[in-house]
Amino acid sequence: MAMDALMGSIQLVAFNFVPQGWAECNGQLLTIRQYPALFSLLGPQYGGDGRTTFGLPNLSSPVAGLHFVIATLGTFPQR
Fold it and tell me: In this structure, are residues 2 and 68 in contact, taking their beta carbons and an 8 Å threshold?
């Protein structure tokens, strides 16, 4: 699933797990060392210190049983 997605793209999913190569959009902090490419796209705009950590968006589901996920792997979008 992640290899077909643009890194940083967000999808609403109806299953009760987060697929490999994706992370839940719950405001969690990730390390820049582990996800340097994703950090280069998002920066510290959703939290973190911008030196060692950065945050993911915190998106609430519009319907129970659904949740938002963000691609942590995949094709790096061209600017």
Answer: no
Domain hosting 55: range is 2-71
Report the C-alpha gap between 79 and 23 in whole angstroms. Answer: 23
Q: Is 65 within the bounds of a domain?
A: yes
Per-residue pLDDT tens over the stretch 33-74: 999 999 999 999 999 999 999 999 999 998 999 999 999 999
Residue 77 lies in a domain: no
How does residue 2 score in pLDDT terms, banded at 50, 70 and 90?
very low
First to last CA, the chain: 22
Integer CA distances (angstroms), 47 to 59, 66, 70, 76, in order: 13, 23, 15, 21
